Queue: 2 jobs
Job 1
Amino acid sequence: MDVNQIATKINQEIAALQYGQHPPELYEPIRYMMSLGGKRLRPVLTLLATSLYTDDWQRYAKPALAVEVFHNFTLMHDDIMDAAPLRRGKPTVHTQWNNNVAILSGDVMLVNAYELLLELPAQQLAQVIRRFNRCAAEVCEGQQLDMNFEKQPGVTEEDYLEMIRLKTAALLGFSLELGGLMVGADHTDTTLLYELGESIGIGFQLKDDLLDVFGEQAKVGKQVGGDIMANKKTFLLIKALQEAQEQDLEELTYWLNQPSFVPEEKVKAITAIYERLDIRQIAENKMNEYFALGMFCLDRLHANTAKKEALKQFIEQIIAREN
Amino acid sequence: MDVNQIATKINQEIAALQYGQHPPELYEPIRYMMSLGGKRLRPVLTLLATSLYTDDWQRYAKPALAVEVFHNFTLMHDDIMDAAPLRRGKPTVHTQWNNNVAILSGDVMLVNAYELLLELPAQQLAQVIRRFNRCAAEVCEGQQLDMNFEKQPGVTEEDYLEMIRLKTAALLGFSLELGGLMVGADHTDTTLLYELGESIGIGFQLKDDLLDVFGEQAKVGKQVGGDIMANKKTFLLIKALQEAQEQDLEELTYWLNQPSFVPEEKVKAITAIYERLDIRQIAENKMNEYFALGMFCLDRLHANTAKKEALKQFIEQIIAREN
């Protein structure tokens, strides 16, 4: 099992994908979106899971792309909903074309994801599609909750963890589970694979929340404090609102309600409140809890110890990343 | 085979459908959309096709709903793209909620359509989903072409027929084909069922184009001349632009380019041009060609003559409708 070999194979398969030709307004945005790059983390995880059980993982590369195409479909529609101008430094589809094109191209991408799953043998199809459907609905539920939270007072830690489980972690769970399902791993293992993905998915999101505030600008590659400036309800803010009292609560509320402010001042003030309330440590503990839970699932898989170790190392690498 | 019995069963199954609960912004619009009613033509056609081959058609009602849920998904997204305020006299989903809700609820509806197909036995699934995927992509292609046509000069009769084949007829084709696929009808018959649906689908759209101009307001139930007022590129207008010469062409172009006008005057003038150019007859001939092609497919099905006759009568009833 070699992660680089898997990533290379995934990128080759993506480059070879045929989405359709006519009308170009429908298919060009799909090619554009898929060409923006990224780490292809989801299908790489799928094939890493597959390679736990078979050396012949190469033949599963095409159906593994279903999770990457699905992921990019959600990004295309999310970018409309979030009115995001840029994605990986390039104009988003709805900016480059228009909203209608982004809606309709996204719809076809979702259909394309199902088409990729049809590469699987008939006897696996019903189970894989049933699990994929559940995951797809959960990702939509998570996106809706995320939008709701913007205007919703009193979002709790529990609400937030459930939202990121749905929006982010469910697809990482399914990506790993798919790897097991494709090679006929037993139910215990496919469940453990799902829980591994779900746990590290929640951990990754908590890490993102932490990096936004405590990351080094040069390494993170985006402006530190973006979430703070936007009043984004991250784990850190929710926890701080829960923990803060008197002076701290007053100051936090003040900054959240300022219609205009000097960005650096707001970021500095809220970061200082986080520090005083030990929010960084609380969030890191929570994150490490989820990573540990994931590793516990990985340990219990009925697979070759050396191969499990390789998957573990790959996940630890992603955990250690600074962007 | 009793069409009313089939329609009753379809409505019962729709009423019993569970889409999900939380968050309500995601699932309430689906229930709302599905409760707006309509003739449920597509799943009724599916079960009518099924009943050509088996008396036990009732057990296929749930997977047949996939085509109705898919159809309503396309309406929910189309209404955003067309900025349509009303659907069956009620506010559209993006009007009642907002665009983001309509995008995301629609996405989940598409997932729900696939979930309904999972009711089918494993050995049929790959084939059914492959055909469904093709159909779903074609419907999106048709919608994109329809939007393109608004700004595209020189749309030909051939372009138009291809657009309505994709946007409207492909799903009617698949609806009938699905009925055959579910009961294991042979490839000749499932192909004929598809072609039957595709042909009458094109015929229905041509009939819609005709009714907009030549229908009786009371029977049609919507304002006569709506397409003319909106410069909609229907079969009639495309044909008239192709046939008109000198005085007629000049007058037609005049009305198409008037930024403001008295609606009745424009409708009257363009209708008169259609009459002079015999466009009504040309369109009716074309429509009848497609209906005849459909009936020719129906005749060739390897099914019981009495049952084929019942399906034929049902289709003739829809053809004879005035709205």
Job 2
Amino acid sequence: MGAKAKIEKFWTGDPIDSLRVNPGFSLADVDTTSTPGFDGKKKHSVEALRKGASIFRHQQEMFFAGSQDGDERKVLLVLQAMDTSGKGGIVRHVVGAADPQGIDHLAFKAPTKAELSHDFLWRIRKQLPGAGRIGVFDRSHYEDVLITRVRELFPLETIDERYDEINAFEQELTDDGTTVIKVMLHISSDEQKSRLAERLDRPDKYWKYNPGDVDERLHWPAYQEAYQVALERTSTTAAPWFVIPADHKWYARLAVQHLLIDALTRMELSWPEADYDIKTEKARLRAS
Amino acid sequence: MGAKAKIEKFWTGDPIDSLRVNPGFSLADVDTTSTPGFDGKKKHSVEALRKGASIFRHQQEMFFAGSQDGDERKVLLVLQAMDTSGKGGIVRHVVGAADPQGIDHLAFKAPTKAELSHDFLWRIRKQLPGAGRIGVFDRSHYEDVLITRVRELFPLETIDERYDEINAFEQELTDDGTTVIKVMLHISSDEQKSRLAERLDRPDKYWKYNPGDVDERLHWPAYQEAYQVALERTSTTAAPWFVIPADHKWYARLAVQHLLIDALTRMELSWPEADYDIKTEKARLRAS
């Protein structure tokens, strides 16, 4: 693919294999400052991200166009991370390059009482992307095995059952033509500390800080463990996890952009053929 | 305002008054090739749009931030136009500059049977933006007085009642803190013809063409009349219409961007104060 070739220029190697969570994966062994597959620095990332954005935008339009012609495939990007890891930046700088008309962005908050009265996947199912659309989940059904596990909001047996339920759910999505891209942005505890400190230093960032952020932070090791278990148990062939070192925001953005471009490239998209007679239509138009 | 001053540089005058639909307005008298308030050419518009995007992005973030602090105001941008007028380009190039997390984009298609069994505003109400969000309606409740009138889908008396119902509805939105920005992108019949012809000439545009587009085109005068009536009867103090000459796509984009920036500027936004004690939180964070 031409698009593929253009991307390779900016990468020393395809980072996908080294980012994918395979058997034996250990979250603790990931260097959060590393930049797998990308040899450049921040200054080199700007141009790479810009070029990637143009490729992504083009592919996303073709993907959307295909759905108008009966292609029923969908993409779902799941973003999970500790606070301040840069999910918002991914949405702005990576997803934001695409046409808003083809993006379904959803930020999942703590479930409401009504939502809690249903199965945990109930509210997730309602927000799944339709054909030709890229759904972006900022937090997701994985909160139901992360914060719930750390805070002991449900019995461990209930949580334990959910990993299999999630795998079955994601297999169903895949069978239905959804490419599920699951991303954990991974920062160090020290990096989080300095990002939270910045929010307390800048009046234009005060609103992003919440005293509850420090409460959660005190559970850092328990969260890392909950992530480790979730990654182990739900990184499947149908819907693998990618853990992206995110101390360098610019790298995380490049890597997620790369995952999106890779997924769309593998779809082998093309512009839909006309489903009308072009000559006839030209004549009708001329006469109108 | 600083932002306001920066915008003025690119404009010879504020275009808002000349774009607003006031009593005595006549759609037929609008020159679709004109560029009210902007003296430059296409090449000058690029930099103006880029600078405007940065102002818009900044204001939109502040608007969103305010909602986390209890500000309940909302913005609703309604886009109406004949086919090929460039609604999609507005969404991509103007709205697309903002953070996708703060945008609710909705494209209204022909109503389903279920939707038709309700009042025409039922499906619209369900999609209204929440606090701190900018809703973007690509087509809207105005279709219920446009295509329905031209195609005689409802008795004229029913449609006639709807203008008042729309005014009451929009007054209610305004009372509830929603700034309603209603935009009609206005192109000439010849411009539409050449844009449709382009879609029939370019394989990457075939998917955007639909034989029904020519069917609708044959009703051009009736649509212009339906627009004239809608504009006359629903351009209110609470929710005025703006008719934007759109034969130059670049001008239409600048003008809609200007309307959005103007609306946000008039809100006199500022970053929310911290609702926690900064010193205490810094100490807690240090200790964490």
